[in-house]
Amino acid sequence: MSAPYLAATGMTGGYGKADILHDCTLTVERGQIAVIVGPNGAGKSTAMKAVFGMLPLREGRVTLDGEDIGALSPQERVRRGMGFVPQTHNVFPSMTVAENLEMGAFIRDDDDGIARTMDQVLTLFPVLADKRRQPAGELSGGQRQQVAVGRALMTKPQLLMLDEPTAGVSPIVMDELFDRIIEIARSGISILMVEQNARQALEIADIGYVLVQGANRYTGTGAELLADSEVRRTFLGG
Amino acid sequence: MDLLNALVAVLNFVVIPATAYGAQLALGALGVTLIYGILRFSNFAHGDTMAFGTAMVILLTWGLQGLGIALTPLPTALLALPVAIALTALLMLGTDRVVYRFYRRKRAAPIIFVMASVGVMFIMNGLTRLVIGVDEIRFDDGARFIIGVADFRRWTGLEEGLALRGTQVITVAAAALTVAWLFWFLNRTRSGKAMRAYSDNEDLALLSGIDPERVVRQTWIIAAALATLAGTLYGLDKSFRAFTYFQILLPIFAAAIVGGLGNPLGAIAGGFIVAFSEVAVTYPWRKIAAYLGWESDGLMQLLSTEYKFAVSFVILIVVLLFRPTGLFRGKSV
Amino acid sequence: MSTATRQAERASPWRAPLLFAAVAVLVILEGTTRNALFSGSWNTALGILNLGLISAVTALGVNMMWGYAGLFNAGIVGFMALGALAPVLISTAPVPGAWDAGGTRLLFALALGLGTLALAAWVWPRTGAWRGVAVGAILIAGFVLFRWAFDPAVTAIEANNAASYGNIGGLGWPVLLSWPVGAALAAAAAWAVGKVALGLRSDYLAIATLGIGEIIVAVVKNEDWIARGVKNMSGIPRPVPYELDLQNHPEFPELANRLGMSVAEASGVWVKIGYASLFTAVLLAVILLAQLALNSPWGRMMRAIRDNEVAAGAMGKNVTARHLQVFVIGCAVVGLSGAMLVTYDGILNPTAFAPLRYTFLIWVMVIVGGSGNNWGAVLGALLIWFLWIKVEVWGPALMGVLTAPLPPGDLRNHLLGSAPHMRFIVMGLILLLVLRFAPRGLVPER
Predict the structure, then answer these.
(1) Which chain B residue has the Cα nearest residue C354?
(2) What domains does chain B contain, in order, with CATH numbers?
(3) Per-residue pLDDT for C6 more than 60?
(4) In the complex, which subunits touch B with 3 or more CB pairs below 8 angstroms?
């Protein structure tokens, strides 16, 4: 069996002297949805940032498609096929939806390909097609989240990383977003996401990681974790 | 009641001068607002950048005149502009390289940038004084008038005269062309959109693969062009003195803040708001009131010309009090 | 942050005394040696020292705003000019007839003006949808009333013996009394500006103060009734003896003789030493108060707010109110220095109040000396002021040497003529170099 598409193993590090991550490991196969859950302050977002190169690691390595990318800056990782959707401030508010998507494709120079990806994104999120000319800052929370995901997709990533994509959106919008995420994964893009809404997220997860204090506590398929009484009791509220 | 004469007087003494002045302020405020949008600080050296750019234009104009090259009926200065812009842009890029880049990498607080810009202001001020001195210089050698007062009276038979100076028309035309180009650049080109994206959300711009240093370089070049143009037009319209360019900083800041710092459209509107307020408040309205059948002993001047800066200041204060993000929603407070 | 910490660790306790000693040596050299660099005149040396001491007081005021609270005041020149009005209004002799010509009406007009603003501010939060209209109407009516009361009063006062007076005149009180009044005037203006511009983005305060600075200077220049405007106000009384009185004193020539100076020179030096003692006393008093304040709970809170506004705000500290306090106090000290300046000059010349000299040069002093450290601000003021004066002389001398190989002609003349402007470049360079390589200044905050 070949190595997973993304393998972040033994990550240890933090912002200052104290480590936030302790020997944390995350892997995602091609086309899989991997979900990181855990209590507040467990280092979920930090782990994601570490994978993306926004956190200096003292130990551990990150490989993408078998290549060690530990030394690359976030920008270089984008060029290697990693798309990142931050939790907040994830759109260009004064630019139109179309311009936001265009900016996502900034690193690409294949005009035809860009147009094709743009069509795919607009098919995936039909509401954005109607709002193409509207500044992203004027959209509702859920629509803005769609723009954010759309922008990241425009970089044509092989791995899409989402930091709490459903934070602050209504349950209906949340379900719709999860549907779209499944659709994206079916097109062959790997997904790594951090979620507060653990139960719903694990329902769509191929693999789930429960982090506690920066370390892996439980790992398994979404169904396994949902079935695990310990996990349910401690993290899913019964 | 003499409506026609009153109208001509308003045009002649208020509308025309304020429009030209407004265009100059708008160009200056555009530079300030762009730098604010991209580099996120109020550039106190902008006035002196205008002075430096204009000094370059004047030196080159003298050089061209020495060679016998002219652009009649347009001022020779227009011919000197592109080279002067290039020189100013080089200076700005050099300044960014040795001064601002360091703080940008450190992600220093905006106020540290402001402080550094004060240092740059000193140096630019000194450079300008060094190359051209502190005396008043007039360098408009183009046709003085498009419409002369006497001609206008002869044509219309009105008592009130109207003058339209060449520099006023050039100012407005040049400002309009520049603004049109700038908006085309910002809204239609890849580089311009990258600038807007960077201004909107720096981190996300990085994630989208936009090269911040390139955006910053473009910003300085455009700001240098705007500053040189604004300074030259102001100098052609009035006269050049290094010190006035420091003073004009206040109305320019006021214009940029009124429109919303970081918002180019707002900077233009702000420029005209400040200019029209300034001219209207400091103009003695007695003559116009007399045409409208209202005789008065006083000058009917709200504030004497010496206090024109107070007008910018009051506008600034009112905006800060009631709408700190500006009329057109600039960057947050 | 790490470089700053290292710098603090490196700073030895001898650093500040050594640097002060170096400044003292510079002043002594200026007073004793005559060569290409120094004038060898005690009058010049003490003159530089005295203005340096005044600048040190200004720098202390600026340091309170910047060093304690991180506030950037770009209108120092205005607050100094405002303070400079105090000696004129308090201690010059009353002008015969001025008060009768329009004094009462003037006060009434000023009260009307302030009353209008107060009324507008009172009405604003108490009215509903129509408050814009209401407040606008109040302001317009107030302005018309103000001009109706104000203009005739001013015309009458300015017409009163216009050739030699034309101003409202002073109270004839001792000039030292005017110094705290200068501080109070500046403090009042600072309160008004701070109320509006504090609590917003940090650069907004800078821009607003830049504006108020220019406006105050414009007022001093143009409102002839206050202090004769650009016609200058001379004859401001002195807190120290006059040279002529000294020279006429029977024992003075002998004293001068013993010092090996001419009587004229000795009298000048005597007067300047008198001022220097006075200024030093004020300076030390301000430093003492500032140090006490800085080490009090209030000062610790100020520094806590400066270092982390968000955290301090979260802890329930009213950051804006504290900033207003420190802004007002700092501006008061600046106003005090303005009053000291005109007292020393003996003349109020509003055109001399140039922002580069009185705002931005002071800033260079504070940054170079060490933001947040009072002794640093004083050191920076003395050192930078010395350099500012001397670079004006050294610049052309250096340019003379540099251009010596050039053939005589326009270019050489131009360069020689422009050389005095080099001091702007030098000051800018010093500011940028210190900001970058020693951001905590020569004497860093402990």
Answers:
(1) B243
(2) 3-322 (1.10.3470)
(3) no
(4) A, C
Distance to chain B for C431, nearest Cα, Å: 6
Cβ–Cβ of B119/C429 closer than 8 Å? yes
Instruction: Say what percent of chain C tops pLDDT 70.
Output: 97
pLDDT tens profile B22-79: 999 999 999 999 999 999 999 999 999 999 999 999 999 999 999 988 888 889 999 9
The listed range with the strongest mean pLDDT (A184-198, B314-328, C35-49) is A184-198
* B320 reaches C (C-beta below 8 A): yes
Chains with 3 or more CB pairs under 8 A to chain A = B
pLDDT digits (tens, 9 = 90+) for A7-16: 999 999 988 7
**What's the token pair of residue A187?**
């097109």
Residue B308 pLDDT: 87
Q: Is the ipTM of this complex over 0.85?
A: yes
Of C308, C433, C422, whose CA–CA distance to C367 is shortest? C433
For residue range A68-90, list pLDDT tens digits in order: 999 998 889 999 999 999 998 99
pLDDT band at B97 (very low <50, low <70, confident <90, very high): very high
For residue A104, what pLDDT is reported? 92
Say what angle helices C42-63 and C319-345 make with each other, to 10 degrees: 160
Start-to-end C-alpha separation, chain A: 37
Mean per-residue pLDDT over chain B, rounded: 91
Write a three-state SS string for chain B: CCHHHHHHHHHHHHHHHHHHHHHHHHHHHHHHHHHHHHHCCCCCCHHHHHHHHHHHHHHHHHHHHHCCCCECCECCHHHHHHHHHHHHHHHHHHHHHHHHHHHHHHCCCHHHHHHHHHHHHHHHHHHHHHHHCCCCECCCCCCCEEECHHHHHHHHCCCCCCCEEHHHHHHHHHHHHHHHHHHHHHHHCHHHHHHHHHHHCHHHHHHCCCCHHHHHHHHHHHHHHHHHHHHHHHHHHCCECHHHHHHCHHHHHHHHHHHCCCCHHHHHHHHHHHHHHHHHHHCCCHHHHHHCCCCCCCCCCCCCHHHHHHHHHHHHHHHHHHCCCCCCCCCCC
Chain B partners of A75 at a C-beta cutoff of 8 Å? 206-207, 209
What residues in B contact C367, CB-CB < 8 Å?
115
Q: How many CB atoms lie within 10 A of CB A18?
A: 7
Evaluate whether C236 touches C88 at the Cβ level (below 8 Å). Answer: yes
Minimal Cβ distance to A74: which of B196, B197, B207: B207
Identify all chain C residues contacting B28, using CB atoms and an 8 Å cutoff: none
